[in-house]
Amino acid sequence: LSDVKYLKEEDANRKTFTVSSTLDFLADRNDDGAVVSCRVDHESLNSTPQIAMQVLEIHYTPLVKIISSNSWPEEGQSIILTCESKGKPVPEPVLWTKDGGELPDPERMVVNGRVLSISFLNKTDNGTYRCEAKNPIGRNSTEYVLIVHDVFNTLLPTTVIPSLTTATVTTTVALTTSTTTSATAISTRDPNALAGQTGPDHALIGGIVAVVVFVTLCSIILLGRYLARHKGTYLTNEAKGAEDAPDADTAIINAEGSQVNAEEKKEYFI
């Protein structure tokens, strides 16, 4: 506060007094919205003083600041520059310039209110960009220096992926019987899954062995019965002779009848 002045007036007829107080100070934008109060104390007011308040409304020129969306712009990228302006009254739409002149490439440099968007950056975009705002109190501006950097290539560390070795396990099982029947089981599988899949192979091999044994036994039984039924003495026509064939038959039959507890003999012609 720079100065406070008081003024007192007296009414001789009514015996009243008027007291005035003036406050003089240099205001700035920080005082905008501040509340100033004046308080009066008098014995006739008992314990309740009289207070008057006033909210200050300070007009000031705009404050301007540029905010960038990209702290390290590279070629091919985009950047957005936002011009923040604060003033009272509210500043008019801002004005964007580059190196003291108009924006050189309106197709890539698009202004939308307080925002300047530049796409597909290249080295020609390097320069000083200015944002200017104004209101009835005055105008203000700020600058932003844009430097477009080369594309930064980062070499990623080489990651060595261990090679996967595939092992092939081949199991051959051969079963041979007297009937020259053979069964061969060849199994090729992932060694990682070998331990958990051996059960079904054993079952298959066991089934094949059972079938082979059953067929072999049946063959032996049938062959034995066949040989038993056709057991006897066999003579050819050449051995018997053409003329004495009937006598030979008779002699054989008689000999068979005369033998007691002898094995049965049969004659077949071949």
From TrEMBL:
Pfam families with a match to the protein in the record: C2-set_2, Ig_3
Family designation: Belongs to the nectin family.
Subcellular location: Membrane
UniProt gene name: Cadm2
Membrane-topology annotation of the record: Single-pass type I membrane protein
Stated name of the protein: CADM2 protein
Keyword Disulfide bond: yes
Domain Ig-like residues, every copy: 62-147
Keywords (A to Z) from UniProt: Disulfide bond, Immunoglobulin domain, Membrane, Repeat, Signal, Transmembrane, Transmembrane helix
UniProt organism field: Oceanites oceanicus (Wilson's storm petrel)
GO biological process: homophilic cell adhesion via plasma membrane adhesion molecules
Membrane-spanning ranges: 203-223
CC terms in the record's Gene Ontology section: neuronal cell body membrane
